[in-house]
Write a structure and sequence with these properties.
Helix content: 25-40%
Structural class: alpha/beta
């Protein structure tokens, strides 16, 4: 108990500069593997706090690691700072108001995610120094969670091999333990090559790559009836073949994402999609090239860590929001369709609570709530025992990947929520550093699960990350 109280005071002591870090990252939203400014901000924060800094983690230019402490177990905090395209918005406004610039926005709250993880790591670093407790704390600044699978490539590079346990979180409407379920995910590009021709004078000489892509979509739509109901398939055209309808398109590129609750099911379904693509090429007398872009495993549960985190949540209690925070949240809720608020409660297994604009409670733990998203934390969880929290940083009903999430990213609600979840993560790390039996239970549980289903990376060895070049100054 004393450890918990002490670590929370360390979080409060270091909160101000990490809140500023969050706001600074919000102001420079960058996409997968292009997070050069965001990574530089995190690197400077690590240096300012006295961490031993390693750049280019796992060979990724926008990954950074900070290490502190001596001896004992290594506890990792996982941070992220990538943004999303076309979701820019002014801060604190109650309408869709994109900012001038590249159109990117922190609509998944990763400006908060990385900063709170670094805040927790900083608190544990200083707690270790003051108490003389053996142990090491390590912060991982991880790029490209939004489909780029940054952590998956970092796992493959071995940067987590000496870690004993990992702790992370994600911004959302509620405070609780992140359910240990997610969808394994693979992204594949299909490039169809055909033969151009005049669409009026000699269409019979052409072989349409666009027709092949369309037939791929039709075939996959028929496949949906014959796959697991928890699986997902979606797509986007990267190159539809041009804008001239009087030309038979000779090339199209279409990206598919395939998801399933289990890695094996995802790989099986992805192979079925590949077969549909090959069939579409045969039907149109085109050729098709297949390229895996990225892939992520599903999350592996670790009940000992989840129970420890739940205990810390219940001891700490919910975030302390004031009347102005609740008024802000109520105004934001007016921008949501009514079903969004109902859906948010149902998603966490609760009946809707009228006039509850912000989370003033701790979610009861449940390992049965299915997340419909994917995360590259999944690959880390197959490598070391891992636990995550939900952090209440926005009005209840806020959808991730929405302009409303971006608009709330610098609010008092977001700041209070990130400090609150940093306390939860830091206290869980202190438990692992102080209680050898807890760490051993977590490791045994993890090893027992891997003995039944060993981890295999779903990214082929020849596939590398889609690295970007920094923008010219």
């Amino acid at each position: 108990m004393k450890n918990a109280d002490a670590i929370w005071s360390f979080v409060d002591r270091h909160a101000a500069p990490l809140i500023r870090l969050s706001d600074s990252v919000w102001e420079v939203p960058e996409l997968n593997y292009g997070e050069f400014k965001s990574c530089a901000l995190h690197t400077k924060a690590l240096e300012d706090e006295g961490f031993r800094v390693t750049r280019n983690g796992g060979g990724l230019p926008t990954a950074v690691m900070g290490d502190a402490g001596e001896g004992g177990p290594v506890i990792a905090f996982l941070g992220e700072y990538d943004a999303l395209p076309n979701l820019s918005n002014a801060a604190g406004v109650m309408e869709h108001e994109p900012l001038p610039g590249n159109g990117n926005g922190h609509a998944c709250g990763h400006n908060l995610l990385g900063s709170a993880a670094l805040l927790a790591a900083t608190a544990v670093k200083n707690w270790l120094a003051e108490t003389g407790q053996p142990g090491r704390v390590r912060y991982y600044g991880c790029p490209a969670e939004e489909g780029g699978a940054g952590k998956s490539f970092m796992v493959r590079a071995g940067v987590f091999d000496d870690v004993d346990a990992a702790v992370s979180w994600h911004p959302t409407c509620f405070a609780g333990v992140f359910p240990p379920t997610s969808l394994a995910n693979i992204r594949m590009d299909f490039t169809f090559h055909g033969k151009a021709a005049h669409a009026a004078a000699a269409p019979f000489l052409g072989r349409s790559a666009l027709d092949a892509a369309e037939l791929l979509n039709v075939g996959v739509n028929y496949l949906r009836e014959h796959m697991l109901p928890t699986s997902r398939i979606h797509y986007a055209y990267l190159d539809a073949g041009g804008t001239a309808p009087n030309v038979v398109q000779s090339k199209t590129v279409i990206r598919y994402t395939v998801r399933a609750l289990e890695l094996g099911d995802m790989l099986e379904l992805a192979e079925r999609v590949r077969k549909v693509a090959r069939g579409a090429a045969m039907m149109t007398e085109t050729t098709v090239e297949e390229q895996i872009v990225s892939s992520m495993a599903n999350l592996l549960t670790c009940p000992p860590l989840e129970q420890a985190m739940q205990a810390n949540l219940e001891r700490l209690g919910p975030p302390i929001f004031d009347d102005s925070d609740r008024a802000f949240a109520r105004e934001m809720q007016k921008t949501f369709p009514p079903g969004d608020i109902i859906s948010a409660f149902r998603h966490v297994g609760l009946q809707p609570r009228p006039d509850t604009p912000l989370c003033d409670f701790i979610l009861p733990f449940s390992d049965t709530r299915a997340s419909i998203g994917s995360t590259d934390v999944g690959d880390v969880s197959w490598t070391v025992p891992t636990v995550q929290a939900f952090g209440a940083t926005c009005a209840i009903g806020t959808q991730l990947h929405s302009w409303q999430m971006t608009a709330q990213g610098k609010s008092s609600v977001a700041h209070k929520g990130m400090v609150h979840v940093a306390k939860v993560m830091a206290a869980t790390a202190v438990d692992l550093l102080s209680d050898e039996a807890l760490l051993q239970r977590a490791k045994k549980d993890h090893a027992d699960r891997l003995a039944v289903t060993p981890y295999v990376s779903s990214i082929p060895p020849e596939v590398g990350p889609a690295l970007q070049e920094p923008e010219a100054a």
